[in-house]
Amino acid sequence: MQIIKYPGRNEWAQLVERPHLDISQLNGVVSSVLDDIRQRGDEAVKHYEQKFDKVELSSLAVTEAEMTEAEAMVSDELKAAIALAHHNIKAFHESQKFVSQKIEPQPGVVCWQKSVAIQRVGLYIPGGTAPLFSTVLMLATPAKIAGCEEIVLCTPPNREGKVHPAILVAARIAGVSKIFKAGGVQAIGAMAYGTESIPKTYKIFGPGNQYVMAAKQQVSLHDVAIDMPAGPSEVCVIADETANAAFIAADLLSQAEHGIDSQVFLITTSKEMIDKVMVEVDKQLNELPRKEIAAKALDNSKMVLVKDISEAIDLSNTYAPEHLIIQTDNYNDVAERIVNAGSVFLGKYACESAGDYASGTNHTLPTHGYATAYSGVNLDSYCRKITFQHLSAEGVSNIGPAVEAMAAAESLDAHKNAMTIRLKEIKQ
Predict the structure, then answer these.
(1) How far is 291 from 230, CA to CA, in rounded Å?
(2) Helices (H) then strands (E): counts for the chain
(3) DSSP letter for each residue of 285-337
(4) Is residue 53 predicted with pLDDT exceeding 90?
(5) CA-CA distance, 209 to 23, in Å (whole number)?
(6) How far apart are CA 315 and CA 267, in angstroms?
(7) What is the pLDDT of residues 73-124, one digit of tens each?
(8) Euclidean distance between CA atoms 207 and 146, whole angstroms
(9) What does the alpha-carbon distance between residue 422 and residue 399 come to, in Å, rounded to a whole number?
(10) Which residues fall within 8 angstroms of residue 38, CB to CB, at 6 or more apart?
(11) Residues facing residue 203 across a β-bridge
(12) Exposed e or buried b for every residue in 340-354, given b needs 16+ CB within 10 A?
């Protein structure tokens, strides 16, 4: 990890830069696969499953027999863990339910909102080096609470044509409607356009590699909404001299093992803490099965020494991390000043892993600095707000002249007339 001591604020823009992935060379490949999916449907999805996932599929849908088989393959211990996580995620997201209220800004003018679930959503769950069954819970649970009529999940199968059993168990617990064996760009295309087997969805959620991210960006331009822009995962830790160096190192490494393009970022007011954390990182890294991945991610990562907590907070807000861990003596006071972060973990015991799995908050979060403008996935991610208004004759009398004046000032005479003819009727 790079160590930077007392950087000037004019250096911060460069300091908070993420590892840059140039996906421009991918766009041509992604575009051609998407076009093929649009034209040939299931046949094209199966073709790319054979090409990229090395599996020949006769059917894309996961069967009920496969769901039953998965139940038997998952240990009772893991099932209990999944059930506990689902309970907490459900409780947290149920607390976010929208309560509509009618207001009367002028006598006779009543306005209100109604929250309506997106009817059909698509969830993408990567396969790859780690089966992300926790992401099934994070994405499907709020979709079910929101009232989405159809929850479609795509995930790549293994070379035997099987989906990881924990993914299937989590999908059943969380209320997924349909599950399909499709990965990568072909899965995104199928959920964006629809095929003979896979329904077209109205919004696609979920992480993935750079090909999946490029595909989500392309289909979002014309065909379907997506959850948020996304890049490699990241964590920032703010620490003072009271922090636990071993805990910090463990948190940094837990994020670094995600992938070689992940980034971890330590901001501290203590020079001694940097030295302690470096020792702990080296010690813990050697114990990790994924140490080669984590070590490469650490090459992208930084430890920054700042003069005081106020500067640490400002630098963190400039970085706008996906995950922010605050290990300081006054963590509640620090938290009050955080304005840019996806999810915040307070105190030495609140490790990021808790939020990744079972505390109840959602782990699908804005990365790459997008926390300045985007929220993580929440109940509202699966809903639309429709506005309503009712005007009585009294309401028309109260706001009609203002509408006429504004429409006339914008030279929109038909707009003005729509109100004028109502005012005339009222005055008769």
Answers:
(1) 24
(2) 17, 14
(3) HTT-TTHHHHHHHHHT-EEEE-SSHHHHHHHHHHH--SEEEEESTTHHHHHHT
(4) yes
(5) 11
(6) 8
(7) 999 999 999 999 999 999 999 999 999 999 999 999 999 999 999 999 999 9
(8) 21
(9) 12
(10) 189, 193
(11) 121, 225
(12) bbbbbbbebebbbee
Q: Strands 225-226 and 150-155: what pairing?
A: unpaired
Give all strands (DSSP E) within 319-382, no chain letters.
323-327, 343-346
Residue 131 binned pLDDT confidence (cut-offs 50, 70, 90):
confident
Closest-CA residue to 228 (of 381, 119, 109): 381
* Distance from C-alpha of 9 to C-alpha of 6, rounded to nearest angstrom: 9
- Cα separation of 93 and 427, whole Å? 50
Catalytic residue positions, numbered: 322-323
Question: What percentage of the chain exceeds 90 in pLDDT?
Answer: 93
> CA-to-CA distance for 33 and 11, rounded, in angstroms?
41
Q: Which amino acid is at 51?
A: K
Structure tokens, 165? 């059993």
Task: State the Cα angle at 86 between 85 and 92, rounded to 5°.
Answer: 90
- Tokens at residue 380, please? 């509202």
DSSP 61: B
**pTM exceeds 0.90, yes or no:** yes
